[in-house]
């Protein structure tokens, strides 16, 4: 285990430069640069606010940061998973040439999406500051501090879906359908209180995405650090996923190349 | 101290008629129509054992599909043995498929950087080398262009210059000397020679028997995944040539 982590560290310049290249490829050629990639969460927030704030009878001062935080978290997991499906296939030519640890290819995927998550997080903080005022220093710190937990979970899903996809090439397709269903079941665009009030609270309680959504929303909207249970759940889910991903990787690392 | 030990190494691939499988096919096909996309076993290497010590130059020969390249990739650590033991002491550098794995959207300089990182360079060691690599390619301003626009020959120049910029301990080479135009080829052969002379241990696969005989000290003849013969390079090349000339006698 320790030796494996050292191997990942040893080729850090390689995956670091791939991540940088991914980011540059995404931003290059657009006048707005980084602003361009934030257009998606901004546009979604505007649409949700115009339609659903009215439809669901929500206060815009609460709903706008609420939905923007939801989209930031959701997009991170959605894209980590969907592009995670391709992480080993995309790296085929490297895998065929160098015996680098397989964990770096999902890591590449996670870090470039992690970067977008950080940008989107600052956008959420900015919006909160603009329409709700200063939420407090500790809450902001807690949001920024929770990002490693997101990254760990993102890496784990990249590994698991990447491995699944080299065995079954329709994994991405199935994941898209799964996420579509999960989107409607998750309090991303509607407040979780709506489900709670209608006796569907269990849907919120069993949803593994909810603690992550809360981790970003509670500090911004309630001006306090999320409760220990939320932190515990988010960390627990991340670590459990990472453990399963590590075991899966250990069992199949040597065989990845045989399935490309 | 470079050393390579292969002890009873075997490698078995499991392949399917249609290369990829979907979950849908797996559930529907395998349950109701088994045999639709059957799994086949290919024994790529069978109980291969040999040792190579420091200062040796081993040439691997054999017909296409004999397992030469697979053996080389096994030595590089890309394939793991299905059974048996592979022990390699020393830092391995390998030259095969060097034209693969370029990021098309990135320019020449960027590709030089991350390929070199993959070969174990760090920003500080690369700083001293990057200009020399660029000079060797003779690509000049083209290096500022995404490699997507490169011609095949330009790609070869770039790939070769990066791949041969290393100081290898153990060097594995698979038929890379068909590089670029004539002028570049002569330059390439010279550079390759210099690099091979620097290495402590070289294992190469080639169909060019003259150059193998010229460069290597020992030969290893692979046939259908097994070692057919190993020994001084002259003897092995001779035996191999004989078998090719009169296949009936050899069989």
Query: What's the helix count of chain A?
Result: 15
- Work out the helicity level of chain B: 25-40%
Flag low-confidence runs of chain A: none
| Total DSSP helices of chain B | 9
N-end to C-end Cα span of chain B? 40 Å
Q: What is the CATH top level name of the domain at 3-91 and 206-250 in chain B? A: Alpha Beta
By CATH, the topology of the domain at 3-91 and 206-250 in chain B is Rossmann fold
Q: Largest interface, and how many residues on either side?
A: A-B, 26 and 33 residues
Q: Could you state the oligomeric state of the chains shown?
A: heterodimer
Structural class of chain B: alpha/beta
Which structural class fits the helix and strand makeup of chain A?
mainly alpha
Topology of helices and strands:
The complex is a heterodimer of chains A (260) and B (251).
Chain A lengths: L1 H9 L1 H16 L6 H4 L1 H17 L4 H25 L2 H4 L1 H4 L8 H29 L4 H9 L1 H21 L3 H15 L6 H6 L3 H5 L4 H13 L5 H25 L8
Helix pairs in contact in A: 2-8, 4-5, 5-8, 5-10, 5-11, 5-14, 8-10, 9-14, 10-15, 14-15
Chain B lengths: L2 E14 L6 H10 L6 E14 L4 E5 L6 H9 L6 E7 L2 E4 L12 H11 L4 H15 L14 H12 L6 E5 L7 H17 L2 E5 L3 H7 L2 E6 L2 E7 H13 L1 H4 L1
Parallel strand pairs in B: 3-7, 3-8, 5-6, 6-7
Antiparallel strand pairs in B: 1-2, 1-4, 8-9
